[in-house]
Amino acid sequence: MEKTSGVKLLGSHPSPFVNRVVLALTIKSIHYELVEVNPHKDGEILAKYNPVHKKIPVLVHGDKPISESLIIVRYIDEVWNEGPSILPTDPYDRAMALFWAAYIDDKWFPLFKQLQGSQEGDSRKETLDKITEGLVFLEKAFKDSSKGKPFFGGETVGYLDIAMGSVVGWIKVAETLIGQKIFDDEKAPLLVGWIDKIYSENSVKDAMLNPQTLLEVFKKLQAMKTEAAAT
Fold first, then answer.
1. Is residue 8 a contact partner of residue 59, using CB atoms and an 8 Å limit?
2. Can you say whether residue 54 is alpha, beta or left, with left for phi > 0 and alpha for psi between -120 and 50 degrees?
3. Beta bridge partners of residue 59, listed in sequence order
4. Is the pLDDT confidence value at 76 over 60?
5. Which domains does the chain have, with CATH numbers?
6. Do residues 50 and 67 make contact, with C-beta atoms less than 8 angstroms apart?
7. CA dihedral sign of residues 200, 201, 207, 208
8. Where is the GST C-terminal domain (predicted)?
9. Strand order in the sheet with 58-61
10. Which of 9, 27, 45, 82 registers the highest number of CB atoms within 10 A of its CB?
11. What is the reported pLDDT for 123?
12. Is 116 a residue whose pLDDT tops 90?
C-alpha cells in the first residue's frame, strides 16, 4: 500500500477531534480529501468505517480505516516518518505527552460540556474551579515539556500541542459565552503565550480552528435546536 494513496478524512471541520488529524496531516504535508460527515445524520457511513464507536474522525488510508483522533495522529507520525516528528523520541517525554493528552480528553476538556449546561451560581463556580485546577496542571506540563522552548514539543509543534491546540478555539468560545477568561495571564502565563505562538506558527496557523468562526457555528446550532424544540 502506497503511503500517499487514497488518504481521506471523514469528519466535520468544526470538530476539535477532526482538527487534530488535520493538524497532523498539515505538519506532515500530506495531501488528503476531507469528506464532510455529520455523525447525527450519516450513520451509514460511520457504521461502515467505524462500526464500534460510530464517531468522527476516521482516517481512511488505502481503504483501511483508522479511528480515534489521538490514535490517528500516532498512526500518521509512524507511517509518514520521513516528515517532521510529532511524538517525542525520548521514551519518558513520549510517555508524558501521552499522559497529558489523555488527561485533556478524559478529565479536562469534558468539563467544558458541563460548563455549557450549568447556570450561574455554585454549579458553574464548581466547574470553573475544576477547569482552573486542570489549567494549572497543564501550565506545569507545558513548562516541563517545552524546556523553555515555544511549544510542548520543543522547537516545533508536536503531539501535545496538537491535543491541546485543537480544543483552544472552542475554549475561546466558552470564554465569550460566559464572559470570563479561562486562559488567565496570572494562572497560566506560559499557556497564554503558547496560544499566541501556535496561532501564528507557519506550519499550522492555517489549520487552527478560528474562535470567531466556531462561535458562529455554535449560534447556528443553538438556533436550530431552539427551532426544533418549538415544532
1. yes
2. left
3. 9, 66
4. yes
5. 7-79 (3.40.30.10), 91-216 (1.20.1050.10)
6. yes
7. negative
8. 90-215
9. 33-36, 7-11, 58-61, 64-67
10. 27
11. 85
12. no
pLDDT reported for residue 5: 56
Longest dimension (CA), the chain: 57
Grid coordinates given for 201: 506558527
Amino acid 97: pLDDT: 98
Strand-strand pairing, 64-67 and 7-11 = unpaired
- Indicate the pairing of strand 33-36 with strand 64-67: unpaired
Task: Classify residue 14 by its DSSP letter.
Answer: T
d(CA 198, CA 65): 29
- Cα torsion angle, 133, 136, 142, 143, sign: negative
Collect all residues with Cβ–Cβ distance below 8 Å to 150 and sequence separation of at least 6: 194, 197, 201
**Locus of grid cell 489521538:** 70
CA distances from 121 to 110, 124, 125, 127, 181 (A): 19, 6, 6, 10, 17
Q: Which amino acid would we find at residue 209? A: L
A 10 A CB-CB count for 80 gives 19
- Would you give the DSSP letter of residue 208? S
The percentage of the chain sitting over the pLDDT mark of 70, rounded to a whole number, equals 98
Res 1: pLDDT: 41
Q: Which amino acid is at 4?
A: T
